[in-house]
């Protein structure tokens, strides 16, 4: 999930979210919505351009502490052609505003625009003139429009006021305050960008947003950052913590957040179950019931989504489910292609080898055993990770660097403790989580 807002409050929000569990990980967002920054077009696609953004170093401050990330020098954004009032080509320098950010674990890029826009709970300002009410209820929209006319609530020249659905139920004082706040924010952005006109649209001189003709005006850090941002990844333990918090206010079934994260149908099922009964707070997560209703089932294809502590997500491949047990264990098999060696095991990978992975819901590790075509064990790799979650189409976790291997001759080897230490030093892995990793790895070593 994402949290965006005033930098002074965001640190507290981040701490509140990550306190849900040891596997709640947070990363600063280098491109929060409404941020204005410079960049260079590196590629033109069918519907827009890829922009290499000059974001400087990512930092989110707040009373609850700081989140400091590695300087994000290579953040890319996507600029739709329809969102910029100029033709853009590869190599062009541009000044843009972030419309929508993107999580680090997705393959999406932040969406950009070549004109200023200022959002708010009640009203947003965008280039243009006049007033528009964005409400589904036409009658309520007309009533609000009439009230705005009576109150003479008009935006400054060059701006169009877009009133949000929440404005329909707001009183006159709130409407006035909302517009005043939006105007103040818009003027602040305009001043920061050096725009010549009041809408912030590039006028061809390079002073506004859009294509910048004078490269000496380019900045290496955002020109304006009205919002700070943080992305938070919740794992199975932290989802359970969120359940506990929700349970203090309303009926909450075991695995509420875990099931809802699986699919839209599963989310609707949770709502129905909680509406019909008051779930026992100490009941076990009903994995067998959830898997039977929504998957995965034997014969299904299942991805292995391998998260990293720095926010990236790597898909290790897709296998076939060969078994689903009521205790939460799902067995997946993948047929391997030939070439190279198995990471860490030092054994040649041959065509026809089979990798059998046993994924158990909630366990802090999982094993993959590699077998040759004749069934000979070629080695076992045990990955230490955040508690595994097995969703209908993918198993998901965050890899925590340390692995334990059992070689074909029976030798047991533990590797990558140094990578874990580096991750802790970089601020990617909290020390409490690292201690859990070391404990799990030691237990696996002893068991093997």
Query: What's the count of strands?
Result: 23
Rg over CA atoms, rounded to whole Å, is 26 Å
* Cross-sheet strand order for the largest sheet: 15-16-17-18-19-20-22
| Biggest sheet details | 7 strands, mixed, barrel
Structural class by SSE content: alpha+beta
Question: Globular, elongated, flat, extended or rod-shaped: what is the shape?
Answer: globular
Percent of residues in beta strands: 25-35%
CATH topology of the largest domain: OB fold (Dihydrolipoamide Acetyltransferase, E2P)
CATH architecture of the largest domain: Beta Barrel
Domains, number: 3
Poorly predicted tracts of residues: 58-73, 197-207
Distance between termini?
38 Å
List keywords for this structure.
FomD barrel-like fold; seven-stranded mixed β-barrel; 3 domains; 25% helix; single chain; alpha+beta; 448 residues
Notes on the structure:
With 448 residues, this protein is α+β, with helices and mostly antiparallel strands. The protein contains nine helices and 23 strands. The protein has helices at 7-18, 138-151, 172-193, 236-247, 256-260, 264-276, 287-294, 417-425, 431-447; strands spanning 2-5, 25-28, 36-44, 48-53, 59-60, 67-68, 76-80, 93-100, 111-113, 123-127, 131-133, 159-163, 210-211, 228-233, 301-307, 313-324, 329-335, 354-360, 365-371, 377-385, 389-390, 394-406, 412-415. The longest helix has 22 residues, at 172-193. Mean pLDDT is 89; it is low at 58-73 and 197-207.
């Amino acid at each position: 999930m994402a949290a965006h807002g005033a930098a002074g409050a965001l640190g507290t929000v981040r701490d509140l979210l990550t306190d849900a569990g040891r596997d709640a990980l947070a990363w600063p967002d280098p491109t929060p919505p409404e941020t204005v920054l410079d960049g260079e077009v590196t590629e033109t696609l069918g519907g827009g351009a890829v922009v290499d953004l000059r974001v400087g170093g990512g930092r989110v401050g707040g009373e609850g502490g700081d989140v400091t990330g590695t300087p994000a020098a290579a953040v890319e954004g996507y600029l739709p052609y329809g969102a910029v009032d100029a033709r853009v080509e590869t190599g062009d320098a541009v000044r843009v505003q972030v419309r929508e950010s993107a999580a680090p674990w997705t393959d999406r890029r932040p969406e950009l625009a070549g004109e200023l826009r200022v959002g708010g709970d009640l009203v947003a300002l965008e280039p243009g003139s006049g007033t528009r009410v964005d409400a589904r209820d036409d009658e309520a929209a007309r009533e609000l429009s009439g009230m705005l006319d009576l109150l003479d609530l008009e935006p400054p020249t060059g701006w169009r006021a877009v009133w949000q659905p929440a404005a329909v139920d707001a009183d006159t004082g709130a409407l006035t305050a909302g517009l005043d706040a939006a105007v103040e924010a818009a003027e602040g952005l305009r001043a920061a960008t050096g725009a010549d006109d009041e809408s912030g649209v590039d006028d061809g001189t390079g002073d506004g947003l859009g294509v910048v003709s004078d490269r000496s005006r380019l900045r290496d850090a955002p020109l304006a950052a009205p919002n700070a941002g943080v992305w938070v990844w919740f794992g199975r333990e932290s989802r359970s913590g969120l359940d506990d918090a929700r349970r203090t206010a309303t009926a909450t079934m075991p695995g509420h957040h875990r099931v809802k994260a699986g699919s839209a149908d599963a989310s609707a099922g949770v709502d129905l179950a909680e509406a019909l009964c008051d779930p026992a707070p100490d009941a076990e997560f009903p994995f067998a019931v959830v898997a039977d209703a929504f998957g995965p089932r034997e014969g299904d294809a299942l991805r292995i989504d391998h998260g990293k502590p720095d926010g990236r997500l790597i898909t290790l491949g897709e296998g076939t489910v060969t078994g689903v047990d009521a205790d939460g264990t799902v067995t997946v098999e993948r047929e391997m292609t030939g070439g190279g060696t198995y990471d860490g095991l030092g054994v040649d990978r041959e065509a026809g080898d089979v990798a059998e992975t046993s994924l158990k819901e909630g366990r802090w590790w999982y094993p993959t055993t590699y077998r040759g075509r004749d069934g000979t064990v070629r080695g076992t790799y045990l990955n230490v990770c955040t508690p595994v979650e097995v969703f209908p189409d993918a198993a998901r976790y965050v890899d925590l660097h340390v692995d334990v291997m059992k070689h074909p001759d029976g030798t047991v080897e533990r590797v990558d403790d140094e990578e874990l230490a580096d991750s802790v030093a970089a601020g990617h892995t909290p020390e409490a989580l690292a201690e859990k990793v070391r404990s799990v790895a030691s237990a696996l070593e002893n068991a093997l």
